[in-house]
Amino acid sequence: MHWIFLAIAIVFEIAFALGTNATRGFTRLWPSVLTLLAAAGGIFTLGLALRTLDVGVGYTVWTGIGSVGTVTLGALVYKERITPAKVASFAAIIAGVVLLKLAAGQ
Predict the structure, then answer these.
(1) 15 Cα distance to chain centroid
(2) DSSP sequence for 14-67
(3) Less crowded by CB within 10 Å, the N or C end of the chain?
(4) CA–CA separation, 97 vs 29, rounded Å?
(5) How far apart are CA 67 and CA 54, in angstroms?
(6) Number of separate domains in the chain
(7) Angstrom distance (rounded) from CA 22 to CA 73
(8) pLDDT in tens, 25-76
(9) What's the pLDDT score for residue 106?
(10) ∠ CA(100), CA(66), CA(89), 5° rounding?
């Protein structure tokens, strides 16, 4: 169940990051409200996942996969460019998350 909570937390993390851009410095009401709700949801569900997961594994997976998802969706939603260096960085993040998970035995 902890991996399900972590997956939900990652979705909230991506929504928070993308939403922060949409708030235009928290000057737009509804994007700001949704962004703050996403932040709260992400922290709450991360906390549920960390009841069982090691904090090092849970937090690293949350931020790592959240970062990859944010850059990927940022390219789709905000037309941001994905460069070869970004792709190499994605690969390094994903490899690091997999190795950390394997090393922790979770």
Answers:
(1) 8
(2) HHHHHHHHHTTTTTSHHHHHHHHHHHHHHHHHHHHHTTTS-HHHHHHHHHHHHH
(3) N
(4) 35
(5) 20
(6) 1
(7) 13
(8) 999 999 999 999 999 999 999 999 999 999 988 999 999 999 999 999 999 9
(9) 59
(10) 65
pLDDT above 70 covers a percentage of the chain that reads 99
Does the pLDDT value for residue 101 go beyond 90? no
What pLDDT score was predicted for residue 24? Answer: 96
The average pLDDT across 9-16 equals: 98
Question: What sign for the dihedral angle of Cα 23, 71, 69, 73?
Answer: positive
Cβ atoms within 10 Å, residue 36:
15
Average pLDDT, the chain: 94
Burial code (b: 16+ CB inside 10 Å, e: under 16) for 81-99 equals eeeeeeeeebeebeeebee
Specify the pLDDT at position 98: 86
Residues 66 and 15: their CA atoms lie apart, in Å, by 9
CA distance 18 to 95: 24
